[in-house]
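User: two proteins, same treatment. go.

Assistant:
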Amino acid sequence: MGSNKGKATDFGQGSVAGLVLKQALPLMLSSLVQLLYNIVDRIYIGHIPDEGKDALTGLGLTFPVVSLILAFTMLFGQGGAPLFSIAMGAGNDKKAGKILGNSFSMLIIGSIVLTIVLTIFMKPVLFALGADEVTFPYAEAYLRIYLMGTAATMIANGLNYYISAQGFPVTAMVTTLTGALLNIVLDPIFIFKFNMGINGAASATVISQTASLVWVLIFLTSKKPKFKINIYDMKPEFKLCRQICAIGLTGFIMQITNSACQGVCNRTLSIYGSNVYVGVMTIVSSVRDIMSVAVHAITNGAMPVMGFNYGAGKYRRVKSGIRISFMFAFVYTGIAWLMVLLYPRFLIGLFTSDQALIDAAVPALHLFFLAYVFMAFQFSGQSTFMSLEKNGRAIFFSLFRKVILVIPLTIILPRFVTPAVNGVFMAEPVSNVVGGLASFLTMYFTVYRRLNEPSDSND
C-alpha cells in the first residue's frame, strides 16, 4: 500500500506560522543549494581567462532548454505533491502511495524521452534561441554533457517534493546539499585544474545531480518515511497520472513560459544589441534566481500546510497559511529590491570581471527589479491556487503574466524605448505589477473570502 511504521507530520495541529517556517527555512536553504548547481557554473565560467564573456553568453543560451527540463520535472513531480498532501490529510494512505509511485514512473519515462529528443535537435534549437558561430560551440559543449544527466536531475528533484510533503524538509535539503557541495568542489577542479572549461562545468553538474539521486532513492526505500517507493504503486494508472499532470500543469506552464521568455529575450537582445546584452541577461537572470530563492521557499513551504488543512476541512488554518506566506513574501521581496538598488555592482561582479559587461548590466538590473515587490502577490496567489487544486486559475495567471504580458512587451517596447535594449528589461516590472495584482486579487475574492466553513470553529 506504500506505507509502513513511519510517521508524517500532522499539519493540522500547532501554530500555522511555525509550521510554515519549519517547512520554509529548510526549503530555503535547500533551494539556495539547488541554485548553486547552475549559479556556481555561471560564476566560474564567467571568470574563465580570455573567453569568459563568450562562454557565459553561450551558457545563457542553454537556459531555455534547462527550463524545459525543469518544466517536465514540475509536471510529473511537483504536480503530485499537493494531491499527495490532500490524500494524507484525508487519511487515504492507499491513494497517497499510488500518487508517489505513479509520479516516479512518469519522471523516469519523461527523462528518457527528453534526453533523446533534445540531443537530436540540439543544433537547430540553439540557433533558434539566438546562438551564432561564436557562442554556439560553448552552448553545444555544455548542453551535450548536461543532457546526459537529465534522468538524474528530473528524478532527484521530482521525488524530493514527496520527501518534503511527508514532513522531512531537512532531509529534502540534504538531497540538494549533497549534490551542490560536490558541484562546488568539482567545478574549479574540472574547469581550471583539468583545463576542461565549460565541459568541466557540465560534467561536474551531472556527477552532482547523480549523487542527489542516489540520496533520494536511499531515503525513499528506507524505513524512515511513511510513504516510500513501492514497485506495485508504480504501475501507471491513467486517471491518477492525469490528475497529477493537471495540477503539475501550473508549474509546467510557468517553466515553459519561462523558457519561452528566455528565448524571446535572448533573440530580441541579439537583434537590437549584441551578444554582450545576451550576457547581461544571463547575469540579470542569475541575480533574479538568487533573489527568488527565499520567496519561492516561503510560498512552497506553505503549500503542504494549506493542502493538508484543506483536505482535513480546517479552512481557518488554510486562510492563516495564505496570510502568513504573503506577509513573509512581501517583506522579503522589499528587502531584495533594496539590495539590488544599493549593491548592483557587487551582485554583477559575482559573475564577471569584464568592466564593459558590468557597466551595461547595472542599469539593466535596476530596470528589471523596478517592481520586484509585486512578485509577492504573484507567488502568493499562484501557490494558493496550486495548493487547493484550483488548477484552471493557476494556469491562467501563469500564462497571463508570461505569455500575454512579458513576451509581447519584450517584442514591442524596444521599438519605443531608447536605447532599444532597455525595452526588453522593462517588460519584467510591468508584468510584475499587472500580473501580480491580477493573480492575488482573484485569489482573494474567489478563494480566500469563501473559506468560511463551520468546521473552522472548533480549530
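Protein 2:
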Amino acid sequence: MQNTTDFSSGSVKRHIIAQALPLTLAQAVQLLYNIVDRIYIGHLPVVGQTALTGLGITFPVIVLIAAFTQLVGVGGTPLFSMARGRRDEAEASAILGNAAALLMIASVGCFLVGYLFRRPILFAFGASEESYFYADQYLRVYLWGTAFSMLTTGLNGYINAQGFPKVGMATTLIGAVINIILDPILIFAMDMGVTGAALATVISQIIACVWVLVFLLGKKAIIPLRPDAVRLNLQRCKRMITLGIPGFVMQGTNSLVNIVCNNQLRLFGEAAMLGGGDLYIGVMTVLGSVRELLSLPVGGLANGSQPVIGFNYGAKEYARVKEGIRFAAILGAVYTLLAWAVVMLIPHQMIALFTDDAQSIQVGAKMLNIYFFGFVFMAFQFAGQSTFQGLGKAKQAVFFSLFRKAMIVVPLTLLLPRLGFGVEGVFLAEPISNAIGGLACFVTMWLTVYNKLDAPVKT
C-alpha cells in the first residue's frame, strides 16, 4: 500500500506522533499476548514463583520460533510489494504461495525438534528439576500451535501489503483478546494452571490463523492465496530467506541473550542462596516483562519517525529530516527519564504485578533498580537505529542491534559474575550495554548521517 500522506508539509512533530500512536497501540496489544500469561501464572497459589520461572525457561524456544517466522515469512513481503508495484500479479501470487509453503515446512520442523527434544533443550536453557516440570507443561501444549502461530504472523504481513491495515490489526486484536479472556477461565476457573495458559494461547493462535486464511483465500483479497500456488521455488526461497536473515539474526540474538542469562542466573543464583537459581530466573522473567512494557512508547516513537524522516529524505527536505531525528531523540529521552524515575520510586509495586511471593518481590525490587539504571540510554539506541532504518541503512541498524546484544550483553553476562559481582553481575550487564551500545549507535548516526544531511546520504 502506498502512503498517501505528504510528510513533506505540515508539522514534522505532528506527523511523527500521528504515526507513533497507532503503532504503539498495535505493539501493546501484541505484547499483552505474553504479558497476561506471565501475570496470571505468577499469581498461581503456592507454585506461582516456580511456575513463572518455568515460563521464563520457555522464552528462548518461543523467540526461536519467531526467528524462523521472520526468516521464511517476513522476508517475502517486500518482494510481494515490489511485484505488485510492477503490476506483476502472477509473481506476487507465486511469492505468497511460496511463503505459505515455506512457513508450513518450517513449522513442522520447529514442532518436531521442539517437542521431541524439549527436555534436553529446556535443561540447556537453564531449567532445574523443579522449574522443568512447569516449563514442560507449558511448552508441550504451546508447541501444538506452532503452525498456526507461524502462519498467522508470517502471512499477516501480506494482508497489510495489499492495503488492508485494519484487517491486519484485527488479526492481532482477535488473538490477544481471546487469550486474555481464556486465561483466567482455563488457569483458575478450570484449575488447569500452566497448561491452561498454554492452551489459551494455542486456541487464540488457531482462531487468529483462521481469520488470516479466510481473508487471504476469500474474494476481498487483491492477491488471494491460491492453493495451486502453495509450492516451493528454489530461486524465490533464496530471495525470501536472504531478506529474512536480518530479522532472524536479531530474534536469534534475543534468544541467545536469554539462554546465557538463564544459565548464569542458575549458576550464580544457587551460589547466592539455596534455590536461588529458580528465584533469580523468575525475577529476570518479571524484569523483562517490565522492560517490554516501559519500552513500548519509545519503540513506537522510533518506528513512527521512520516513514516521516524517510519520506522527507526522499523529497530532499533535509532540514525536516534533521528536525524529525531531533524530535524523536529528545522526546524519547524525556520519556525514558520519567519511566526510570517511576521504576526507582515504586519498584516493589511493579514486581508485585507479576507475583505474590514476598521473597521474589524483595529481591526483584533490588534487581529492578540495577537493571533499569541508565534506562534513558535506550532512547538513543532507538533513535539511532530508527534513523538508519528510515534512510534505508539496514546493515547499520542490524549491526548496532547485534553490537549491543551479542558483543556487549553476552560477554558481560559471562564476565561480571566472575569478577566479584556474583548474580547481580547478570542484571548489571543490561544497563552497561544500554549506555555503551546506545551511545555508540546514536553518535555514529549523528556523525555519519545527521551531520551530512546537507548532501545526499550514501546507502
